[in-house]
UniProtKB/TrEMBL annotation:
Residues 2-246, 312-526 form the ABC transporter domain. The keyword ATP-binding applies. InterPro entries: AAA+_ATPase, ABC_tran_Xtn, ABC_transporter-like_ATP-bd, ABC_transporter-like_CS, ABCF, P-loop_NTPase. It comes from Larsenimonas suaedae. Residues 525-568 are annotated as: Disordered. Transmembrane segments: none annotated. Pfam families: ABC_tran, ABC_tran_Xtn. This is ATP-binding cassette domain-containing protein.
Length: 636
């Protein structure tokens, strides 16, 4: 049990935590949320004894073993699997004493130590360490490589594996997903769900918090408030509280209208029921929790270029990589308005693809053709380091647009959280989150029509992630994004591409399908090799035959779905024409056009009903198709 009793903390004279009473029971998995700089990491330092509270104190169950991620790993020359095993100090101590007992031929002591070794599960230690590293994205041939062979992000993964390997009753994790891709994040999510101890987790990933945590500890303007449930439940509960004390009806209604308009447009374009349903649920939830963002410091848009081209960018018969091809036979086209999420295992080439699309990485073979009016906005982590640390945010924009007024620049940067004199502060002391916000602001200032975003949410807090999500939803250009933030992907993309096995291909599914795809891929990799010769040929023939039969059985359902989708498009186009005509102000003022007005209104009602009927038919057909597929999978 952990109890904060009238806990208060100040840093530099600024209150971070105002007197708060919170009790966390053993076994709870608590997500800690709040804006950057609120004091979340300082709370961990209080628990670790690295800081002393200014008031009150913390009570922790006696004997509770804590594990947390250290800031640095010093053993640069040691194999990473050994670094991970260093996390169990007790195991290492027994290991050293065993070596001494063997050297001294003290067999009785050696037998005693073997008993301790068994109690510490030492015989499986190396296998457990390797499993952690593999789950976090390392290949089996990398496990004996020294830590110095890896970049900073990969060292953080080793550090995380070492922390998870450490025996603990209380696990403290500060932004563990920052340096993970989606595959490793999904693995970590399952590991933490199975963790038997108490977990305190600082994260800005709402889907991760929802999946892992059963309580949320919120930094609410300095006060620590504990909520029961995951992040979505926290948002709903907090929204209710805010709605009771804030008069935000007008703002809520405006937001509701935006959501309804987006739902209407999304329905007309949707081609997958599960994608549609998950998006609709997400939008409904956004409507419910809009009040929680009343006091968000971030409010911005992503302007789009005035001119565009069709297509914006195409790559044909290309080989991508540095010296040797990592991706081959790449053929893709980006059209205005496309919204693509890029999936694929770690190291498969997602970042390589994006760099090739920007032109920063020349093609090894093939052709890259830019549209006449292509304007690319590119975000990647290395661009944060490329910022001029001696310049301010104001100066960065002024260099791009010398004729822009000071007030115009101030207003623009204010939407990204740079208020008042903060616009003139040099960025040398900026946090990772502040640099990421500035990099996004610089992209938005240039008005691109194609956004290429490689992990844009790293270092961003929840409010900024939500603001970015809303800005991308409203962006009128094309978007291609790599992200481990599933909320952002679900909200902002319509289709997925998968980068795997040296190829780039369309992925027919949503993120739940991708999770299953990863599981199937892992099972296939671990399965014994198929027998050779005639039996393998027979298996292929049987597989092809079964696939053909399956396609034939599914054909009527697919025809129903496709017909409903065509009807939706037809009715939506007709409805748009009618509503455009109804937007003519003279139609209402001219009494001679009364019959025309009534006809248009009647037609509008008919088309809305027809569109609703077509949408319902489409959803029913897609659900039937999905149920049929699941039944076939179960039968197999």
């Amino acid at each position: 049990m952990i109890a904060f009793r009238q806990l208060a903390l100040q840093r530099g004279g600024t209150p971070l935590i105002t007197p708060s009473d919170v009790r966390i029971n053993d076994g709870n998995r608590v997500g800690i949320v709040g804006p950057n700089g609120a004091g979340k990491s300082s709370l961990f330092k209080l628990l670790l004894g690295e800081l002393t509270p200014d008031q009150g104190g913390i009570d922790v169950t006696a004997g509770m073993r804590m594990a947390h991620m250290a800031q640095e790993l010093d053993a640069l020359d040691r194999p990473i699997v050994e670094v991970v095993m260093d996390g169990d100090a007790g195991l290492r101590r027994v290991e050293a004493e065993l070596a001494e007992a063997r050297a001294a031929e003290n067999h009785q002591r050696e037998a005693e130590l073997h008993g301790q070794w068994d109690t510490l599960d030492g015989y499986t230690a190396r296998a457990r360490a390797e499993q952690l590293l593999t789950g976090l994205g390392f290949r089996s041939d990398q496990l004996t490589s020294p830590l110095s062979a890896f970049s900073g992000g990969w060292r953080m993964r080793v550090n995380l594996a070492k922390t998870l390997f450490t025996p603990s009753d209380l696990l403290l994790l500060d932004e563990p997903t920052n340096h993970l891709d989606l595959d490793a994040l999904l693995w970590l999510e399952q590991w933490l769900i199975r963790y038997p101890g108490t977990l305190l987790l600082i994260s800005h990933d709402r889907d991760f918090l929802d999946a892992v945590c059963n309580h949320i500890l919120h930094f609410d303007h300095g006060a620590l408030v504990l909520y029961k449930g995951g992040f979505s439940q926290f948002e709903r509960t907090r929204a209710e509280k805010i709605a009771q004390r804030e008069a935000e009806l007008a703002k809520q209604q405006a937001r509701k209208a935006e959501i309804e308009d987006f739902v209407r447009r999304f329905r007309a374009k949707a081609s997958k029921a599960r994608q549609a349903q998950s998006r609709l649920k997400m939008l409904e939830r956004m409507e419910d929790i809009a009040a929680t963002r009343v006091d968000s410091p971030f409010q911005f848009v992503m302007p789009c270029a005035d001119k565009t081209s069709h297509p914006l960018l195409s790559i044909d018969h290309a080989a991508l990589g540095y010296q040797t091809p990592l991706l081959s036979g790449v053929r893709l086209t980006i059209a205005p308005g496309q919204r693509i999420g890029l999936l694929g295992p770690n190291g498969a080439g997602k970042s390589t693809l994006i760099k090739s699309m920007t032109g920063d990485l020349p093609l090894l073979a093939g052709e890259r053709v830019e549209g006449e009016h292509l304007a690319v906005g590119y975000f990647a982590q290395h661009q944060l380091e490329a910022l001029d640390t001696k310049a301010s945010g104001f100066m960065h924009i002024q260099r791009r647009s010398p004729k822009a007024s000071e007030q115009e620049i101030r207003n623009f940067l204010g939407g990204f959280g740079f208020q008042g004199d903060a616009v003139f502060e040099t960025i040398e002391r900026f946090s990772g989150g502040e640099k990421a916000r500035l990099a996004l602001a610089l992209i938005a200032w240039e008005k691109p029509n194609l956004l290429l975003l490689d992990e844009p949410t790293n270092h961003l807090d929840l409010d900024m992630r939500e603001a970015l999500t809303e800005a991308l939803m409203a962006f009128e250009g094309a978007v291609l994004v790599v992200s481990h933030d599933r909320h952002l992907l679900n909200a902002t993309v319509d289709t997925f591409w998968c980068v795997a096995d040296g190829r780039v291909s369309a992925f027919d599914g949503d993120l739940d399908d991708y999770r299953q795809w990863l599981k199937s891929r892992e099972q296939a990799a671990n399965a014994p090799a198929a027998s050779e010769g005639a039996s393998a040929t027979q298996d292929k023939k049987a597989t092809r035959k079964a696939a053909a039969e399956r396609r034939e059985q599914m054909r009527p359902l697919k025809n129903r779905r496709d017909a409903a989708e065509k009807a939706m498009t037809k009715h939506q186009d007709a409805l748009t024409e009618v509503e455009t005509a109804l937007g003519d102000d003279t139609l209402y003022a001219d009494t001679a056009r009364k019959d025309e007005l009534n006809t248009l209104l009647r037609r509008q009602g008919e088309l809305k009903q027809q569109l609703d009927d077509a949408e319902q038919a489409w959803l029913e057909a897609e659900e039937a198709l999905e149920a049929f597929e699941q039944a076939l999978d179960s039968a197999q």
